[in-house]
Write a structure and sequence with these properties.
alpha+beta, binds guanosine-5'-monophosphate, binds zinc ion, globular, 5-stranded antiparallel sheet
Length: 114
C-alpha cells in the first residue's frame, strides 16, 4: 500500500535492518527498542490492524507464531522467556497501521504492561 512505512520496508523502498525474511514475512529491529531484543515481525501483505484480518489470513496469522518461535530461538530467549505484543488501534498504542507482532526479550518483563 502506498505511503505505508512497513510496506515500503518490506518491498525494499525504505531501508531497515532486516533480520529475517521468507515468502510471507520480514522481521526487522525496532528503531526505538524497548528491550535488548526488540524485533517486529511484519507480514508482507498489507493489513492495517488485527480488526481487518479476514478468513483468508488465517494461515498467515497462524504462521506468525512459527516465525516468532524461530526468532526467539535464534536470540537465545527460550530459557529467559520473551513477550509477544500486538497493539491494535491507537488506544492500545499502535502507531504504524500495518499489522505487526513485537518480539521483546533480554530483560525481565513486568505485568501488567503499561
Ligand atoms: P506500534 O506502536 O504500531 O505497535 O509499533 C510500531 C513500532 O515501529 C514502534 O515500536 C516503533 O519504534 C517502530 N518503528 C517506527 N518507525 C520505524 C522505522 O522506520 N524503522 C523501524 N525499524 N522501526 C520503526
Ligand atoms: Zn502496509
Amino acid at each position: 500500500m502506498e505511503n505505508c512505512l512497513f510496506c515500503k520496508i518490506a518491498s525494499g523502498d525504505e531501508a531497515s535492518e532486516i533480520v529475517y525474511k521468507d515468502d510471507h514475512f520480514i522481521a526487522i529491529k525496532d528503531i526505538n527498542p524497548q528491550a535488548p531484543v526488540h524485533l517486529l515481525i511484519i507480514p508482507k501483505k498489507h493489513v492495517g490492524t488485527l480488526m481487518e484480518i479476514e478468513e483468508s489470513d488465517k494461515d498467515m496469522m497462524g504462521s506468525v507464531f512459527t516465525v516468532a518461535k524461530f526468532l526467539a530461538e535464534e536470540n537465545d530467549l527460550e530459557m529467559s522467556g520473551f513477550r509477544l505484543v500486538l497493539n491494535c488501534g491507537m488506544g492500545a498504542g499502535q502507531t504504524v497501521f500495518h499489522i505487526h507482532l513485537h518480539l521483546l526479550g533480554g530483560r525481565p518483563m513486568k505485568w501488567p504492561p503499561g
